[in-house]
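Summary for the steering committee. The consortium agreed at its last meeting that each partner would contribute one worked example illustrating the joint modelling workflow. Our contribution is presented below. We chose a case with several input lines so that the handling of multiple components could be demonstrated. No manual editing was applied between input and output; the record is shown as generated.
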Amino acid sequence: MGDTRAPGQRAGLTRDAILRCARDVLSEQGIDGLTMRSVARRLGVAPNSLYSHVAGKDTLVDDLLDDVLGEVAEPRTTEPAAGLRQIMTSTYEVLLRHPDLVPLYLARQGSRGGNAQRLGEIMLDLLDAAGIAGPEAQEARRVLIVYTIGFAAMTTGSTSDAATSLLSRDVLAANFTTGLDWLLEGILATSDNQLPPHSL
Amino acid sequence: MGDTRAPGQRAGLTRDAILRCARDVLSEQGIDGLTMRSVARRLGVAPNSLYSHVAGKDTLVDDLLDDVLGEVAEPRTTEPAAGLRQIMTSTYEVLLRHPDLVPLYLARQGSRGGNAQRLGEIMLDLLDAAGIAGPEAQEARRVLIVYTIGFAAMTTGSTSDAATSLLSRDVLAANFTTGLDWLLEGILATSDNQLPPHSL
DNA sequence: ACCTGAACACCGTTCAAGT
DNA sequence: ACCTGAACACCGTTCAAGT
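What follows is the complete predicted structure of the assembly.
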């Protein structure tokens, strides 16, 4: 299948094409089916060709996860509570749109890419505007991220169960919002009193 | 290293010995270092010998995770709120005692083994005593499990960061308890009013 | 710069033995 | 029943080419 092209012939590979293909393979074959070789096979290319555009499998997956975070909408307000609610809700919705990726986010506890950093700084800015900074802010951010990914995993995972399918997407989304508001309440309360920080 | 034993010579392998060895390999080599072959090597045995005692790698990891859940203490009361708080707190403490396993629990969203089932039924009994049953109970249980594993992941993960190390284990544990109480409050409130179930 | 063939050092797992 | 050697069908990655 790869013999149609001699060494030196261009295949028109692109970092974006590889990422898109990896996403297709993931949705069709699952996590275990996502390999360098399966991606290369689907692109009609030798396995090692990918290394001209991607450092390796780990960074490919990292890039995959971070690319999707580009879909997250930035908050339309600088008011801390509303802004944090908007950005986390948007993240939750994006994750639901890519159920195959959720387990990967879980395993890596988020992403370290450019989009993740951008969103993370927006979160820190919002927390700072609420008077929360330093290690407390970092912890609050991690709580919100873990909560969001965890809830997304709960929503997307094991929906094959007959009983849980009775709970509609809408009900789960409402539950997410309710819990999120509780978290925000607790986090933002730390800036208004003298109690030891209990950011969850 | 395996030539000291001819085919047919017993090596005294045990399912428990394999599990214990796998845990040692995991803590020393990390997740990527945990392979059938590395476990066998450490036991001074051929790789395929393990298959006389374990079905395969997936079930080995499953067994590994479920075994640890045997350390979780059963609640000392049948009062729903207190009982659920006890069982989740004990689970959280057990997970902190085995930081290497936490990412694996995350990826598999818990465990399906005997200990997990036993704990899961205790949780359902406690919820039932609070008047919560059916799909609402299953969702509440999943919320509590995801929250606990997620928080354990947050506590154990990325503690190499200088800023976060300022937050002591005790502070994080207190945060876990605070958030847990919020969840329990919300979950148990669903049995006392007519509002649509918002189990988080 | 981009792609190839070939190879290396691994995997998990199976199969046909041996005692 | 328990363990072995050998093998199969894979991995990710590297290296020396070719254009």
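Chain A has two domains: 8-54, 69-190. Residues 2, 5-11, 13, 45-46, 48-49, 52-53 of chain A lie near DNA strand C (CB under 10 Å from a C1').
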